[in-house]
Amino acid sequence: MRKNLIYIMITLAVLLLVGNMILKRSNEEIPEEKIIEEISTTEIENIFLSTIDQFNLDSSWINKVHINSSQYDSLQFVYKLDLPTDLPPILVLRSLKEQFMNKAVDLISDEKSINGNTTLNIFSNDELKLQTSFNIKENIYRKHAEFAVVLSDVEELTENELSKILRSIIDLNILLKPSVESDTLIGTLSNFEKTYSILISDQVENSIYSMKPDDTKTKLTEAVRYINWNYPMRIFI
């Protein structure tokens, strides 16, 4: 009798343990599925255009063509973009994919050749929302930022150091203080197709170029006249 009681107690303990496990599992929160909100055609177009705008394309290269054909699904227009040779379509596609990440869209591209003409279709809910073609044109060029390196105190360089700088293919602009040394240097700069600018300050030692706050109007006028005369090819920075 006592042995049977032990078996019964063990059985009850096992049943309680199993019951607690089942109850605990049923009470665990079921992770919610991440819901990606549907995106409208207008929003797709806005993201597309804002991404394209980052590539500094001329507005004449971006054409919105209105259509009325069943082969384009429900589209009312398509985009046709001309790209210069320095901007392969794959770079534009990569940026577009990054911008549409976590959006309820599918981007499907059809590349005719490596870095060649490409068509991009953007779908949402299996419906074509936007289509664009990227066409490579060899006769168009993007505007790029221009810059120049400005070097000062070149009068203190050795002849060998100055020669290395002047023979550089980098677009350099030399900042000169008006002086006898600078007067003879501008001819050399011109031979090497380097530009120069003039530093105007009250620290200029040469008397004919010197301009100090307490100088007379006549003296200042004369200094400006000498600079204009001796440095005619200067550029302003």
Low-pLDDT segments: none
From the helix content, strand content and strand pairing, which structural class follows?
alpha/beta
The residue-averaged pLDDT reads 79
Task: Give the helix tally.
Answer: 6
Order of helices and strands: HHEEHEEEEHEHEH
Note the beta-strand portion: 15-25%
Helix content: 25-40%
Estimate the global geometry from the Cα principal axes. elongated
Q: What does the largest sheet look like?
A: 5 strands, mixed
Q: Order of strands across the biggest sheet?
A: 1-2-5-4-3
Number of strands: 8
Rg over CA atoms: 37 Å
Tell me the span between the first and last alpha carbons. Answer: 108 Å
Structural overview:
- The protein is an alpha/beta fold.
- The chain has a five-stranded mixed β-sheet with strand order 1-2-5-4-3, covered by helices on one side. A three-stranded parallel β-sheet has the order 6-7-8, covered by helices on one side.
- β3 and β4 form a beta hairpin.
- The longest helix is centred in the first third of the chain and has 26 residues.
- The N and C termini lie far apart (about 110 Å).
- The relative contact order is 0.09.
- The model has no long low-confidence stretch (mean pLDDT about 80).
